[in-house]
Each structure stands twice: as C-alpha cells, then as structure tokens.
Amino acid sequence: MKKKKILITGITGQDGSYLAEYLLSLGYEVHGIVRRVALEDPTHHFWRLQKVLDQLILHSGSLESFPTLFKIMREVQPDECYHLAAQSFVSVSFEDEFSMMQTNINGTHYLLAALKDACPECRLYFAGSSEMFGKAEETPQRETTRFHPRSVYGLTKVAGFELTRNYREAYNLFTCTGILFNHESPRRGYEFVTRKISSTAARIKLGMEKVMPLGNIEAKRDWGFAGEYVQMMHVMLQQDVPEDFVVGTGETHTVREFLEVVFGELNLNYQDYLVIEKNFYRPAEVDLLVADPQKAREKLGWKSKMNFEELALQMVRHDYDILKKGDDL
Ligand code: G4F
To answer: Is the CB of 198 under 6 A from ligand 1?
Structure first.
C-alpha cells in the first residue's frame, strides 16, 4: 500500500520533532519545510531531529514566500499538512511586532492559499494557542470562550485561526485548529520559562550559575507534555469532519510552583537564588490559563498522562544529567 505523505512546517522545533518521530512510527512518509540557513548549519538547527534525520525528506523554503510554498505543495502532494512554524516566543511579540505579524499571519495565509490551489485534498492542522484567550472571560477556557489576546503573538494566532476556519467554510477544505495550552519537554527552547528554570537550576546546582532571574512568577499556566500533545494533532486530522479542539490538562499552576518542584529536586531552595527583574515582565500579561478539554476527551479520546510534577522533574533531571556529564545543553 502507498505510504501516506505528511508535510510539516516547523519540523525542527519541539513539536515538529516529536510529531515527525510519531508519524514515522506510524509508517508515514514525512516531509519537512526548513529554512535554507538550517540546511547550511544542520548541527545547530537539527539537534531535536537527530534520531530520525536520515528518514526525513527536507525541503528548503520559507513561510514568507508563497511561490516556494506552492511549489513544495504541488511537488509533494501531501495527504496531511501540519502547520507548526511560527515566531512563537510571546515576549518577542512586544519587541518586534511587525516581523511577527508578517511571519505568522502571512505565512499561514500563504500556506492555506497554496493548499487550496495546489493540493486541495490535503488535510491541514493549524497550531493555535491558548494565548488566543488572553484575558480570558471565563475559566476554564473551552472552544467557545471568546478570544481576547494580550500580545501580538496571540493576535496572530487568532488571525490564523480565523483564516483556517474561513478556508474551511469558503473552499470546503479539511482544515482545523488545535488550541493547545502550554506544552513543554526537554526539547523546549531555553527562552521559555520552564526550560529557563530547569536549565538554570541545574547550572546553579553544579556551580555554573549563581542566580535565577525571572519576571512574573505568579502567572498561572496549564502545562502538559509536548510528546503527548502532538498525537492529538494527528487524531484531529483523522476525524470525519474538520473541527477545532482545545487540548490541555485541565490543571493550572504558577511559575512559582514550577520553581519549587525543580529546585526541590536538586535539594535547593529557589528563594536563595531568585532575582525578580522588571525587564522579564510583559507590558500585558496573561494571568491565568486553564483548559476545559472536555470536547477533546469525548470526541478524540484525549487524556493527559504526564502530570505537572512529573513534567518538571523530567525536565530538570534531563538538564542536570547532561551538564553533570560535562556536555553542554
Ligand atoms: O514560558 P512562557 O514564555 O510561555 P507563554 O508566554 O505562556 O507562551 C507559550 O505557550 C503558549 C501556549 O499557551 C504558546 F502559544 C506560546 O508559543 C508559548 O509556547 O511564559 C509563561 C509565563 C508567562 O506568564 C511569563 O510572564 O511565565 C512568565 N515568566 C516569568 N518570568 C517568564 C519569565 N517567561 C519567560 N519566558 N521568561 C521569564 O523570565
């Protein structure tokens, strides 16, 4: 039987790498779009894909170019496309709003247009975000909760969500959005708060660092394990009808609690190292996010397995073990 073909944008990131591994394990032919600079410097850009790199088919392309996306779509003719690529660090959206708007909104629009013209049978998953809820009007947040983004990043995700819905309705395409709450892992980028804490705590324990600089540690997030969440992306595209789903654990915790678990695991008291720095505060914060994943539970069979504490422990043990061996993170 012919292998199903998959195309992933953002394949070099945390979610892209877990998704690629998962889909290869299901027997798919996995293609990825990567920037030319990544192909020129694979050691630096492909570390998350090391396990499966030789099984992937990579195409040089950029979200900023409609012709390139169209050409790749036409040549690959994927059965499913997972659009994960984006500028995804919320803080940056306050510093470089215009570039984030450009990449995230136009990139999604170009990809949808390329899909419609070059490969309309392909099913598309768009990576939405709980940042779309922002200053949420109800708790927990579900698919029907009104969006009130608090950053340009959140705003670009709302635009992507609406574009995805509009292409579904206007052109009868199978396109849907997963509204994923924060999902972390040892592959998380170091700029995000969980990985910043796990890596810095490990360095402090080993005498390589002295302080833990942070911003608002009272912010609450619904944190789950990225390796599980990518499986839901796949399940969403196997439904009979395209629909949008919220995916999260249904639990919320503060950044402070994450600090406690991580530093506690290393027999340290985070208060001895914590330095609150104003520049890590955001001009507009999202104070509280927590998912109501009932729809995903009922229709997709979703249930998060790794809890908050296990996730934090997994991350800090990973970072500590690597640094202790003398390797760099
Ligand atoms: O780890 P964060 O930067 O993640 P954030 O902003 O919640 O966004 C992440 O999750 C979204 C899903 O809801 C994704 F769409 C998005 O792409 C990204 O993956 O910050 C978490 C919280 C914030 O409230 C922030 O103000 O931690 C607080 N925080 C406190 N000190 C800090 C810091 N965040 C960072 N990155 N660095 C700090 O020093």
So the answer is: no
